[in-house]
Design a protein that fits this description.
Layout: H1 7-16, H2 23-29, H3 35-51, E1 54-57, E2 60-63, E3 70-75, E4 84-88, E5 99-102, E6 114-122, E7 130-140, E8 144-152, E9 155-160, E10 169-171, E11 184-194, E12 197-207, H4 214-222, H5 231-238, E13 249-250, E14 258-260, E15 269-275, E16 285-292, H6 303-311, E17 315-316, E18 321-322, H7 327-333, E19 341-351, E20 357-368, E21 372-374, H8 375-382, H9 394-415, E22 425-429, E23 435-440, H10 445-468, E24 474-476, H11 482-494, H12 507-517, H13 523-533, E25 538-540, H14 564-577, H15 586-590, H16 592-622, E26 629-638, E27 641-646, E28 652-656, E29 665-668, E30 673-676, E31 682-683, E32 688-697, E33 702-710, E34 713-714, H17 731-739
Parallel strand pairs: 5-7, 13-20, 14-21
Antiparallel strand pairs: 1-2, 3-4, 3-6, 4-5, 6-7, 8-9, 8-11, 9-10, 11-12, 15-16, 16-19, 17-18, 19-20, 22-23, 24-25, 26-27, 26-32, 27-28, 29-30, 30-31, 32-33, 33-34
Helix pairs in contact: 4-16, 9-10, 10-14, 11-13, 12-13
């Protein structure tokens, strides 16, 4: 194991490098490599944090009681002299420092409640004093709420729609925006509390909460996703024109095709595979991956660029998409439609018969798609049901692509990326927005073919920019923490499986665990628990590899229509190859860290909005079936109850602790179990259950369930006189429970 630095050395380094103080930065500074050494460093940092010597905030460590050099601040009212002061937007503990905001010529007008991103400098001679200089105004910090308006004699009330939000908001007369009773509204805090309730001003009326378009609209407003383009952005997009060949490489002779979902809203990648005629590469292929050249239209510093960066990515809902770019670009000029010339960034990758990459070449070109295909028809064609449209493409396009995929599958099997099997739900809506059915998306080899081609193209982009020594944004996925691995191992062992211990974790070890569970009752449990043990992927200018894909170098290159990260990679390639003046700007390079954080956060915002929307649609779909019984599996356990994933729809519902059984249940956080004090019944993740749907609330997406059976049998009755939740378990029962480390009762 690498020699770890002392606590004093770490503390001094953090003080000297306030802007580079993540665990990864510290590991790099002290040349700490390998899983065991990194785990030990993490333990040491946690120990220092518990001792109070350092603080951790959003992956960054800093000296306790200090602020990072770039912070988000909330402005206070001006003082008597008119000077502006601010407090940190997020501060743990009391006595937050006051920060003097230094106004400069050209800064926008600032006032109380504004949120700003600012660069901080300590005031010499004063321990907790700072001066701040504006980087960017972020907006106002007024607290907002989304809810149902109920009209009253004096204004009205707003009932928040957030799950778990039980506080009403009072709307005074004159601040209702003439909202109707029962209407969905957005409001912001308008004054101090009265009668124990915060005062609110309605700022937007969103219509009938049960209306066909309200479900995704709720998520858009609730998560603050920008869904209206400013006029300057639309005007800039409207001025865009089709691209001519110019200095580009002419790729229009290639039989490139796009393969997407049948309901695809944009087409940003095209593929082609041709056999390699080199005798030294028998059985090999040239795999072309051509990607929409968004960088040509969205240039650094433009209104389009600023808006795309703010959005970070497109957000997809069952009934609509909130695009990163206006439709004239995302749906037309940048989209690789059939039989029209489109600008592209392309890579030709040479692979051998085993799918290993032998080389690659990037180019900026002009292409013309031979077909806008979808996964189902391509899979049907290779299986023998060929549509007339695909007949001319079978020998030149479809069969060579599947042959190249066979080689790529071999390379994937050697690399051993994480092989999770988690079916994806698909909500089928009527034209009016009503949920018709809930299904699980089919997974064809056609999907996997495109995925493997895109992964390989992303690897090539990262390797090319490393070779060119150009800055870029890597897609990072770090290995799981030791704590999460221990929890996964406990679940695995309780289910009768094993996970290797005492060695550097590889995805192959996790794949062996998943293979053990495949086809058993614990299959879904092990897949879900493995997924939950993973860290969240993010973007970073520093390369720390992609654990889940088992790749050392990985960058997103293949979806610039819907991801800003890919646009940055395209600009870096343009800059590195000298393909034009629309490559990375000096500001792009200087702001890479900030951009990485911004788009990582916006990605999580979109994921949360998409997940909440699915929950609401599922609750709407099940609202007519209240009182019916369903089978499912316990997906999570907390001291307040059980989370159950229903077999039929994949919907998640809560069984409150009061509905679990007629006895006290002891919660064991380590094994994630509830154990009955009197019956000894132990319930944990993976247990098969039958539940009754007690409540379905479409506006919040909440499902409440009642537990009827567990593992095929009725709930055991506690001994007479021992029922109830109001008392703790008897001492003998508590002692027995403390020794048990099981996830569910083994029979």
């Amino acid at each position: 194991m690498d020699q770890l630095p002392s606590k004093d050395q770490i503390r001094q380094w953090i003080t000297d490098n306030p802007g580079l103080a993540s665990k990864r930065d510290i590991a790099k500074a002290f040349s700490i490599k390998g899983g065991p050494a990194r785990i030990e460093l993490k333990r040491l940092l946690k120990e220092m944090e518990q001792e109070g010597g350092i603080q951790k905030r959003k992956r960054q460590f800093r000296e306790a009681g200090t602020l990072p050099p770039v912070s988000i601040l909330r402005l206070l009212p001006p003082d008597a002299a008119g000077d502006l002061f601010a407090r940190p937007n997020e501060w743990e503990g009391e006595d937050a420092p006051l920060i003097h905001v230094i106004a400069r010529t050209g800064d926008p007008a600032l006032g109380q409640g504004d949120r700003i991103l600012a660069r901080l400098e300590k005031v010499e001679g004063e321990a907790h004093a700072y001066e701040a200089r504006l980087i960017r105004k972020l907006g106002t910090s007024a607290i907002r709420v989304l809810g149902i308006f109920r009209r009253g004699h004096e204004g009205g009330r707003i009932l928040p729609i957030d799950k778990g939000a039980d506080k009403e908001w009072r709307v005074p007369p004159g601040l209702t925006l003439e909202a109707e009773d029962g209407e969905l509204v957005e409001a912001e805090q308008a004054g101090p509390k009265r009668m124990g309730l915060p005062s609110a001003r309605i700022v937007a009326r969103l219509g009938d909460p049960s209306g066909p378009k309200a479900v995704s609209l709720i998520a858009i407003h609730q998560h603050g996703i920008p869904d209206q383009f400013p006029e300057a952005v639309l005007a800039e997009a409207d001025r865009a024109e089709p691209v001519t060949l110019g200095d580009r490489e002419d790729l229009r002779h290639l039989d490139l095709v796009t393969i997407d979902p049948v309901d695809a809203r944009d087409r940003d990648d095209a593929v082609l595979a041709t056999p390699d005629t080199d005798p030294g590469n028998a059985g090999g292929f040239h795999l072309w991956v051509a990607i929409a050249d968004v960088a040509h239209y969205v240039t650094p510093g433009s209104a389009l660029d600023r808006e795309a960066r703010k959005r970070g990515n497109s957000t997809y809902f069952p009934d609509r998409v909130v695009p990163m770019l206006p439709d004239v670009l995302s749906g037309d000029l940048c989209s690789l439609h059939e039989a029209v010339d489109r600008p592209c960034m392309a890579v030709c990758i040479t692979i051998d018969a085993q799918g290993s990459k032998r080389g690659h070449r990037f180019t900026r070109g002009l292409m013309r798609s031979r077909g806008s295909l979808h996964y189902g028809q391509v899979q049907a064609a290779i299986d023998g049901a060929v549509e007339p449209k695909l007949e001319p493409l079978m020998d030149s396009v479809i069969r060579p692509l599947y042959a190249a995929y066979a080689a790529l599958k071999h390379a994937r099997a050697v690399r051993q990326p994480l092989e999770l099997d988690l079916p994806e739900r698909k909500i089928i809506l009527s034209d009016e927005g009503k949920v018709l059915s809930v299904a699980f998306r089919e997974r064809f080899d056609a999907h996997k073919l495109i995925e493997e081609a895109m992964v390989l193209a992303n690897v090539c982009a990262a390797e090319e920019l490393i070779r060119l020594k150009r800055p870029l944004l890597f897609r990072i996925h770090e290995e799981p923490s030791q704590e999460k691995l221990d929890a996964l191992r406990e679940v695995a062992e309780a289910s009768g499986f094993t996970l290797a211990k005492g060695q550097v974790l590889k995805t192959a070890h996790l794949n062996r665990l998943l293979a053990q569970a495949e086809g058993t009752d614990q299959d879904e449990l092990i897949n879900i628990t493995t997924l939950r043990s993973m860290t969240q992927a993010y973007y970073s200018p520093q390369n720390f590899g992609h654990f889940g894909l088992a790749l050392r170098n990985y960058a997103h290159f293949t979806s610039p229509i819907r991801r800003y990260s890919d646009l940055i990679v395209h600009r870096a390639l343009i800059d590195g190859h000298g393909w034009g003046a629309d490559g990375l700007s000096a500001w792009d390079v200087e702001s890479l860290d900030e951009t990485a954080k911004l788009i990582s956060d916006s990605e999580r915002r979109s994921m949360a909005a998409e997940r909440d929307t699915i929950d609401r649609y599922l609750a709407s779909y099940l609202s007519d079936r209240v009182g019916q019984t369903f089978t499912g599996r316990v997906s999570g356990v907390q001291k307040f109850g059980l989370f159950v994933k229903l077999d039929e729809t994949g919907a998640d519902g809560l069984v409150p602790i009061r509905e679990v059984g007629r006895e006290f249940f002891f919660f064991d956080a380590d094994s994630q179990t509830l154990t009955g004090a009197d019956t000894g019944l132990t319930i944990g993740p993976g247990a098969r259950v039958t539940v009754r749907l007690a409540e379905a609330v479409p506006v919040t997406g909440g499902l409440l369930l009642e537990l009827i059976e567990i593992d095929g049998g009725a709930l055991p009755a506690p001994k007479r006189g021992k029922a109830g939740h109001g008392r703790g378990p008897r001492k003998p029962a508590r002692a027995a429970i403390a020794k048990r480390k099981v996830v569910r009762k083994r029979r």
